[in-house]
Amino acid sequence: MIVLGIETSCDETSMALYDANKQKVLASIISSQVDLHRNFGGVVPEIASRNHLIKLEDIYYQILKEANLTPKQIDLVGVTNAPGLIGSLFVGVAFAKGLAYGLKKPLIGVNHLAAHTLSTEIEHPNLKPPYLSLIISGGHTHIYYVDSAYNFTLLSHTIDDAVGECFDKVAKKLGLPYPGGPEIEKIAQDGDEKAIEFPIALKNSKNFSFSGIKTAVLNCIEENKYKVEDLAASFQYTIFRNLIHKLNLVIKELNIKNVVVTGGVSANGYLREKLTDYYKKSGITIYFPSKRLSTDNGDMIAYTAYKFYTKRVFMGLRETAYDVKPDID
Ligand code: ATP
Ligand code: MG
Ligand code: FE
């Protein structure tokens, strides 16, 4: 069974073809719009939707060529349906509907956060639920208990900023280009992570809050008292401490051995190393997708669509973006 996955929820236009029988991604294209948004210091929704519209058709034909397949060989179409920028989602959903209707193939609307989580399974075929999912992305900071590919329980979420948003805002204040995460990671390498002590908010709650640390770092930048490298390193270290603090509160209540960490911020090499090392001794294994699959991609949409297909939950042509099952957000 060949599944086409379409992702347009934010500023990546991406498609992948997944062969469910061979359990293999046959071809994948990720076209990033980062250069278009950089001058604005963040994603401009109108520019994002228009660019998805321009790119989708070319990417569709290019991916079929790369996989050496014809349109008729596609058995299932999966598309990100929520959450995301509404205009961007609409472009992807409209394209997917037209395609599924024209090809007379089933269509599945995929929750983007479920897809981030399940992306880990593509490269770790032995990893099976139940496990914990920590999503650290541009728009979300969530911990889910994943009972099956279709059954997510939200255990913890941020009450204000997402961790990726926090990286981006700190970077912007430092005059670094968008997206800020990789820039902070780079300069933090030359800094002292213990130079400045930032607090962890909501210590007794499983929920996250990042607005306090964001403001604390922004104030430090204003004061101009510290080396930029030390600021970046101390900020990253606090994010790491924050993540393990909340994860530990959740783990204490559950007998769980596997944790998957996904979303754009999980591409951060420092956080990967620190989290892996920290949990090594406790018998808990941390799984990450490859860095390519940490940020938005069609691979995770195709894979998740296939998982949902086994549950026989399809998307009707009358349904629209945000009519998504399961609604795990
Ligand atoms: P969501 O998945 O919540 O809808 P999104 O799709 O915009 O949001 P992703 O594309 O998964 O988010 O991730 C983008 C975020 O990841 C940005 O905030 C970016 O700064 C951050 N990011 C990317 N690489 C790194 C890195 N190396 N270190 C820290 N953050 C990073
Ligand atoms: Mg993005
Ligand atoms: Fe994402």
Task: Give the arrangement of secondary structure elements.
Blueprint: E1 2-7, E2 12-19, E3 24-32, H1 34-37, H2 45-67, E4 76-82, H3 86-103, E5 107-111, H4 112-123, E6 131-136, E7 141-148, E8 151-157, H5 163-173, H6 180-188, H7 211-223, H8 228-253, E9 258-262, H9 269-280, E10 285-287, H10 291-294, H11 298-309
Parallel strand pairs: 1-4, 4-5, 6-9, 9-10
Antiparallel strand pairs: 1-2, 2-3, 6-7, 7-8
Helix pairs in contact: 2-3, 4-11, 5-6, 5-7, 6-8, 7-8, 8-9
The site of adenosine-5'-triphosphate has 25 residues, from helix 4, helix 5 and helix 6.
Query: How much beta, percentage-wise?
Result: 15-25%
End-to-end span in angstroms? 29 Å
User: Which term fits the overall shape?
Assistant: globular
Element-level helix/strand string:
EEEHHEHEHEEEHHHHEHEHH
Largest sheet: 5 strands, mixed
Low-confidence stretches: none
CATH topology of the largest domain: Nucleotidyltransferase, domain 5
In the CATH scheme, the class of the largest domain would be Alpha Beta
What is the H level of CATH, i.e. the homologous superfamily of the largest domain? ATPase, nucleotide binding domain
Mean pLDDT: 95
What ligands does this structure carry? adenosine-5'-triphosphate, magnesium ion, fe (iii) ion
Number of domains: 2
